Amino acid sequence: MSFGIEDVKRLREETGAGMLDCKKALTEADGDFEKARDILRKKGLAAVAKRAVRSAEEGIVAAALNADKDRGALVSLMCETDFVARTEDFTNFASLLAQSILAHKSDDLTDLMKKSLVDSHSTIEDALNELSAKLGEKIVVSRAVLFPSSDENVALFSYIHHSRKIGVLLGLKIPDTVNKTLLAEPGKLLAMQVAAARPLYLNPEEIPSDVLEREKAVYREQAIQTGKPEAVVEKIVNGKLQKFFREVCFLEQEFLMDPNAESKSVQEYVSKSVSAKAGGEVEVFGFRRVEIGESNS
C-alpha cells in the first residue's frame, strides 16, 4: 500500500509526532494509516487517545423530546458560514428536523430525506433544497440520532451547549413511581458531563474486544520497552487500562458537574446522589452525543 506526503502530514497532525517519524512509521506499516499510528504510540511518539478529525464547517445541533420524555432526537445541520447558522430560518429548520426524526422514528438519513418535514407538505429533501436556495449556501444534514431506537422505560434528558455545536441525550432508568421532572437537575448535569468529557462508551463492558485488545497491545509494548520484569509489565498494563477506562467510559469518569464535589465518579453520583433524590435505585441507560463536524458513518 503506497502513501504520499499528504498522508505523512495527516499522521503528523493527528499524532503530534515529527515528519520523519511519521514517514518511517508509514513505511514500516506499508502505508496502513492505523498501523502507523499504533507504531508511533508504541514508541511513545504519539498521543494516547485517537481523536476524531472534525470538520471546520459551520452549523448547529438541535434536539427534540417526545411528550413522555422517553425518546429523543438530535440532528446536526451544516452550512458554510456562522452568519447563516445564526439566522432564524436556519435554526427553525434544525428544530423541525429534530421533530421529524421523532415523528418518523428514523435516523437513517437516506430514508429521512424522502419523508415529510413536520408542519410542512414538502419532503425533507425538498425543504432542505428550498432553504439552501433561500439562504444562498450549501446546507446539509450531517448526522441524525434517534434515542432510544426502540421502546424503553426511561427518563430522557437533553442538553444543547450554549454554542449550539454540541448536543446530548441522556437516558436514566428510574423507579416507576418517580416523577421525571424531579430528576431534571441531575439529568441535565449528567448530560453536561457527556458534553464536556466526551465519553465513548457507557462502561468497560461496552468497549469492543478489538479496541480493548489493541489498547492492551500498545500498553504492553510500551511497558516491555521499560525493561521491567513480566509481573511488573502486567501491573503497568492493568494500570494503564484502568486509566483508559476512566477516560472513555462514562460511568468510570471523574464527575465534573457535582456542585457539592461529593462524588468522585459518575457512577458514584448516580448510585448515591441521584438515587437518593429519586427515593429508589437509578441507573444510566445510555447516552448519545452529537457535535458539529461528525457524520452518521
Task: Walk me through this protein's architecture.
By secondary structure, the protein is α+β, with helices and mostly antiparallel strands. Among the domains are: 1-47, Ubiquitin-associated (UBA) domain (Helicase, Ruva Protein, domain 3, Orthogonal Bundle); 58-201 and 282-291, Elongation factor Ts, dimerisation domain (Tetrahydropterin Synthase, Chain A, 2-Layer Sandwich). The protein has eleven helices and six strands. The chain has helices at 5-15, 19-28, 33-42, 82-85, 88-104, 109-112, 124-135, 184-197, 209-224, 230-248, 266-278; strands at residues 58-65, 72-79, 140-147, 155-160, 166-173, 283-291. The strands form two sheets. The chain has a three-stranded antiparallel sheet with strand order 1-2-3. The chain has a three-stranded antiparallel sheet with strand order 4-5-6. Strand 1 and strand 2 form a beta hairpin. Helix 1 crosses helix 2 (19-28), helix 3 (33-42) runs parallel beside helix 9 and helix 9 packs across helix 10 (230-248). Residues 48-56 have low confidence and may be disordered.
